[in-house]
From TrEMBL:
Gene3D superfamilies linked: Ribonuclease Inhibitor
Species this chain originates from: Papaver somniferum
Pfam annotation, one family: LRR_At5g56370
Matching InterPro entries: FBD, FBL13/AtMIF1-like, LRR_dom_sf, LRR_FXL15/At3g58940/PEG3-like
Superkingdom to which the source organism belongs: Eukaryota
Domain annotation FBD: ranges: 278-350
Protein name: FBD domain-containing protein
Length: 350
């Protein structure tokens, strides 16, 4: 049936295989000259032919696919000369030591394996080499690979990073150091990014560093930083240094800073924020709290920013205490009493 569709010069193809048996697609699929978009979803081994060529393929999405041959897998990712978007979800690189991709026209790369239904440590033991000089957008949500090598990311604009330690959480100081070194090396290669989204889990891994300021490069192009998830109390060791390494940062977005359900949330922050450098938030113009519970840590962080951000134009706070109007009013009134380093700053509260 697939062969018949190919003969019709198909442009888009969506293949879903529900069985777990290894499958062999017709070799003509992998040399289809008309195909522009290809989706493959399965739960088994994908056997690749020796000859692979997608001259017009612009989008390739793979989900739950198992790869077993390093050379043929490299051919699949390297014989798509006009490929612009590559999405990889929950794929398994069986006993593979290296995953290589070369896509000169690639603009968007998504590797998203968090929440893997098969619970596989996808790239933990792999060396990943990617040549994508035109890449504009990168999403990486997985445990960190053994080593990441990007040939060039000078065009990178957006990056979303969520490092999941999962079952490989370091148990010794040496393991912590090695894992953190792999993550910092990864971040050093995306230093040209303009908009960075980073998870609380990623900041937790970076907290293993002895001195993050010496491990990271300066993010001169970074103008917006978004923290995607809860930042645990010790992550001030990473969040503040990361902001410090972005001298041109203009906007900071906190999706959820502290969990309202943890009794100790914010304790480490309360101590550390008393020694925050006055220059840390000096150039910040916009700050947004998307979920604000009014915890001591949140209030202290908001106060420190308001007091030190001399260029701040607006702080937007979405309070999640909507069912308790009186508590919401108390939080709002306290925020409005905080001293401000920028007289023209507006606080938008909802």
């Amino acid at each position: 049936m697939v062969s018949s569709v190919i003969r019709c010069k198909v442009v888009k193809m969506n293949l879903i295989f529900k069985h777990k048996r290894p499958f062999l697609l017709p070799s003509t699929l992998f040399t289809c000259e008309s195909l522009e978009k290809l989706w493959i979803r399965s739960s088994s081994v994908l056997y690749l032919p020796k000859s692979i060529s997608f001259p017009r393929l612009k989008l390739l999405q793979l989900a739950l696919v198992e790869f077993t041959d390093e050379c043929l897998t490299e051919q699949l990712f390297s014989n798509c000369p006009v490929l612009e978007e590559l999405i990889i979800r929950w794929c398994n690189w069986v006993n593979m030591k290296a995953v290589c991709m070369s896509a000169p026209a690639l603009k968007c790369l998504i590797i998203d394996c968090i929440g893997d239904p098969l619970n596989i440590n996808i790239l933990h033991n792999c060396e990943v080499k990617i040549h994508a000089p035109s890449l504009v957008s990168l999403t990486y949500r997985d445990c960190i690979a053994k080593e990441f090598v990007f040939s060039s990311l000078s065009s990178l604009v957006d990056a979303k990073i969520d490092i999941d330690v999962g079952d490989n959480f370091p148990e010794t100081r040496q393991e912590e150091t090695e894992y953190c070194a792999a993550v910092t090396k990864f971040l050093r290669q995306i230093v040209n990014v303009k908009h960075l989204k980073i998870s609380g889990n990623s900041l937790e891994v970076l907290s293993f560093a002895e001195d993050l300021l010496t491990d990271l490069l300066t993010f001169y192009n970074l103008i917006q930083l978004e923290v995607l998830s809860v930042v645990k109390y010790y992550a001030h060791k990473t969040l503040f240094p990361l902001i410090q390494m972005a001298p041109n940062l203009e906007s900071v977005v906190f999706c959820k800073v502290f969990s309202p359900y943890l009794h100790d949330d914010g304790d480490g922050w309360l101590l550390d924020m008393d020694t925050v450098s006055e220059s840390l938030f000096r150039n910040i113009k916009f700050v947004q709290f998307k979920e604000f519970f009014g915890t001591p840590g949140e209030m202290k962080l908001a106060r420190v920013i308001l007091n030190n951000a001399s260029a701040l134009q607006m702080m937007t706070i979405t309070c999640t205490l909507s069912r308790d109007l009186s508590s919401k009013v108390v939080v709002m009134e306290e925020l409005l009493r905080f001293p401000r380093g920028s007289p023209s700053c507006v606080i938008e509260f909802s």
